[in-house]
Write a structure and sequence with these properties.
There is one protein chain. The protein is an alpha+beta fold and about 90 residues long. Helix content is about 60%, strand content about 15%. It has six helices and three strands, in the order ααβααββαα. A three-stranded antiparallel sheet has the order 1-3-2. A hairpin with a 2-residue loop joins strand 2 and strand 3. The two termini are about 25 Å apart. The relative contact order is 0.16.
């Protein structure tokens, strides 16, 4: 997982919507598909890109794969942005 993959994954509005769906729930690919007018293959591609970037994790339960948000990667990005912005709270921690 690299910063470039993370930023690329976050740049896509569909992927950002998927992350919003996962912020409170663990969902199967089928559950995620219900929120979009796209093929399952397209959603699978987006999930693959999010997983490659480390933004989501997957767990297999019987015949289903469930996806969860990996908030630690998002926290790293937010800290970097806060530091870049010169956020006073971030500077106080240094």
């Amino acid at each position: 997982m690299g910063f470039n993959e993370t930023m690329k994954a976050l740049s896509d509005p569909t992927r950002r919507t998927i992350l919003n769906l996962l912020k409170d729930n663990t969902l199967s690919a089928g559950d995620i598909c219900e929120h979009f007018d796209m093929t399952g293959a397209t959603i699978s591609h987006h999930l693959s890109q999010l997983k490659k970037a480390g933004l989501i994790t997957e767990s297999k339960q019987k015949n289903f794969i469930y996806y969860s948000l990996n908030a630690s990667v998002l926290e790293e990005v937010m800290l970097w942005i806060s530091d870049l912005k010169g956020d006073d709270e971030t500077n106080e921690r240094k």
